[in-house]
Amino acid sequence: MTADAMQGDRERALAAGMDDYIAKPVKHEDLEAVLERWIPHLEQEPLEQRSDGAQGADEEAPALDLSVLESRRGPQRDGEPDKLARIVGLFIDDVPLRLEELRRAVERGEAQKVEETAHMLKGGSGYMGAVQMAKICAGIQGLGASGELSHAPELLDELEAEFKRIRPALEAAVTAN
Fold first, then answer.
1. For the whole model, what pTM was predicted?
2. What stretch of H or E contains 140?
3. C-alpha distances in angstroms, 18 versus 15, 46, 78, 135, 150?
4. What's the distance, Cα to Cα, between the start and end of the chain in Å?
5. Per residue in 16-62, pLDDT tens?
6. How large is the average pLDDT for residues 104-127?
């Protein structure tokens, strides 16, 4: 997103490797179109809510929404490294660090840090098509926002297990192409 856009800025930004482009002043319909392209569509039916604020896990759910993951690949020029492989690698390296950061924040009772870190991890998970992981992060984020962290360790265990479940699928999606 940029202000004071000049003619040709969009093309230059996209050529430089940006995923999309929107200029200010933002028109509602333009923003909606960009968001439609990049935000994964979650199931439309209501999710089972648990008493601890998390959303019920669906053990039968696919590990990844591969259509979301594949949309991250983007065009590749000769000689350039695979964009998807780079993004997946960064995500795989980052998640354990964020999980540890969340555990420390929970142990210290730092609700705001829990909320912020879970929010970041939720966004990254959604971007990767890890829908269930994003749902668990949303539950942890909600606990952080409420300041009630007593159920957070259980959700962190779920989050860690979900990451272990999707990691092979992420790696396979990269090596398959």
1. 0.64
2. helix 131-146
3. 7, 34, 17, 27, 41
4. 31
5. 767 777 777 777 777 777 677 666 544 433 333 343 444 444 455 56
6. 94
Between CA 57 and CA 69 the distance in angstroms is 20
Count Cβ atoms below 10 Å from residue 19 Cβ, excluding itself. 13
> Bridge-partner residues for 50, per DSSP?
none
95 CB-contact burial (10 Å; exposed 0-12 / middle 13-18 / buried 19+)? buried
The two three-digit tokens of residue 75, written as one number: 């065009």
As beta bridge partners, residue 55 has 49
- Residue that is written with structure tokens 């879970």 in the block: 118
- How far, in Å, CA of 36 to CA of 83, rounded? 21
Tokens of 146: 């409420």
In 3D space, the residue among 84, 90, 46 whose CA is nearest the CA of residue 67 turns out to be 84
Residue with tokens 């935000």: 39
Say how many CA atoms lie within 13 Å of 88 toward its Cβ. 26
DSSP state of 46: P
| Tokens linked to 145 | 């926002």
Count Cα neighbours of 81 within 13 Å in the Cβ-side half-sphere.
8
Q: State the amino acid at position 1 in one-letter form.
A: M
